[in-house]
Amino acid sequence: MAAIYRFFHPCVLAVHPDYKDLECFIKSLSARFLRGEGVVIHKGRNELRKMECGGRTYVVKSFHQPNLINRFIYGIFRASKAKRSYLYAKRFLEMGVGTPQPVAWMDERSGLSFNRSYYVSCLSTCPYIYSDLFERQIDYSEEVLRAIGRTTAILHENGYAHKDYGRGNILFQKQADGTIKIEIVDLNRMHIGHVSMKAGCKNFERLPASPQMHRYMAEEYAKIRGFDVEKCCELMAAYRSKQTGKIDDLY
């Protein structure tokens, strides 16, 4: 029955209840991208654009069209990257982990073949990403690193590990009350299941860090997960040292 439904519904979408008035906008995304609307944030295999609607700014991610085999896998059996991004974002917010508010996802199909998918979220208010800890003068960097350690621990305790936990996918800002806001983005690839201490520390390996930076993150991470701080520091540094093309020494 699901396959029959997909065959006769070339456009499948879900819109967050708080943003139902955006349904027509969501359905028009393919045409808007073809017309070049919005401001391009990133363009590679996937494309991100800022788009305006109703006086508010949203971020729309257009996922690239998969190869022929995966077009049928996504068309029939597997949830699209856009749908996964939306569902993971909702789950993150439920567990108290920051991510831009999810708005909608949409899949486009041709019969049982998958074409493209789009994920829409609100625009984050965070002005910085992890890389800015090296490229700017951030006088509260210790607080940021500790917040990242806590946030990552919460994710792992809930059985989630981001598979692309890199320097561009962790956003942060210091709020008016002095607390640090952390938001995680690019959520379509996620490990779900038990996260051991070794697997958890390995999850930090794509983040450039000095020994002191590792210690700040490890102290908070270990505290929440009940692990040994020294062992976490050792593991984080060891896994990071094995990364090819790492740029730690440049900073």
What does this molecule look like?
It is a single chain. The chain has 10 helices and 11 strands. The chain has 251 residues and is α+β, with helices and mostly antiparallel strands. It folds into 2 domains: 2-122, Phosphorylase Kinase, domain 1 (2-Layer Sandwich); 128-250, Transferase(Phosphotransferase), domain 1 (Orthogonal Bundle), CATH 1.10.510.10. The strands form 3 sheets. It has a 6-stranded antiparallel β-sheet. Strand 2 (39-43) and strand 3 (47-53) form a beta hairpin. Helix 9 (211-225) packs across helix 10. Residues 1-6 and 247-251 have low confidence and may be disordered.
Note the run of SSEs as H and E: HEHHEEEHHEEEHHEEEEHHH
Total discrete domains:
2
Strand arrangement in the largest pleated sheet: 1-5-6-4-3-2
Tally the helices: 10
Q: What's the helical proportion of residues?
A: 25-40%
Rg (C-alpha, Å): 19 Å
CATH homolog superfamily of the largest domain? Transferase(Phosphotransferase) domain 1
Give the class-level CATH name of the largest domain. Answer: Mainly Alpha
Query: What is the CATH topology of the largest domain?
Result: Transferase(Phosphotransferase), domain 1
CATH architecture of the largest domain: Orthogonal Bundle
What integer is the average pLDDT?
Answer: 89
Shape: globular
The biggest sheet amounts to: 6 strands, antiparallel
Calculate the terminal CA-CA distance, rounded to whole Å: 56 Å
The helix-and-strand class reads alpha+beta
Uncertain stretches: 1-6, 247-251
Beta strand count:
11
Q: Percent of residues in beta strands?
A: 15-25%
